[in-house]
Amino acid sequence: MAETFLRIAVIGAGYFSQFHRDAWERIDKAQIVGVMDKALSVAEATNYPAFDNMDDLLSTVAPEVLDIVLPPDAQARVITQALDAGIKTIICQKPFCASTEQAEAITAASEAAGACLIIHDNFRFQPWYRAMKEVITAGTLGRLYQMRFQLRPGDGQGPDAYLARQPYFQTMPRFLVHETAVHWLDVFCYLFGLPDSVYADLRQLNPAITGEDAGHILLGYDNGFRALFDGNRLADHRADNHRLTMGEAWVEAENGTLRLTGFGEVWMRGHLRAEETLILPAKDWPGFGGDCVKTLCHHVCESLLAGTTPENIARDYLTILSLEKAVYESAETGQKLCFTAPS
Hints:
Helix content: 25-40%
Order of helices and strands: EHEHEHEHEHEHEHEEEEEEEHHE
Number of domains: 2
Number of helices: 9
């Protein structure tokens, strides 16, 4: 590429798009050249060149990268238009497409077009999981026994739950797993690899919403390790900002325990020891969730400029969707299921 920066167009100017724009603005090798939204006034409010349709955006600003921040039912159409226009790098927010079948078709289409399609599932880029990964990879903990994450954002109570920020949460037929827990399915796979079995028990606690908002997901590994997602969107946890980590986590192992707090701290305690060592201190992070949006965008930018493959390409992310599908099947049947990644 002739430029020293990547030309970025952001598709969608809703609530979460602000974090994407802020991230790109703080990356030296990226430049936002346009924003599109079906409501032109919303796109204009970003103070970037504004568009309400793809054809005008693509022909006017000639972006190299499309960053799609749209609901699942709008993604496939936009990705298809971008592929037809010859765009070779597309980032797409999760949940990815309206169904697994649609996601598979869009992934195949992007590969056939020679395009790199990246899914923006950013929780694996949160600094606390990066810090945990370093400790786990170093072997400091010895044999791993189990990980438990307790989701407790406390934002799901009452008839007005989610309406102020993301009102479509109320009407999603599949909510806790499809919208939220999928982040930790990806985190667990990032930290520990793919599981061999899945068991899930899901429930709805708030009658004002359509989908499930609490439940447990247990991932099993053939070496005896277990990863547990314990989610409840109505309950809270100890934190100043309940959306920073959205809960607390523990990794328990032969030589000790890693502990994630609601303040974004990671502590390590040796086996049978009382004192803890601070691995990652709390910080006033900019952006969202430990600045994970910027970390993901920067990773993509660096990968593209270096000619390497970024994390979370669509083909790999289909495995996460397959795992999500197994979670819902387990919950519906009440059975523990074997899991094999799609070929």
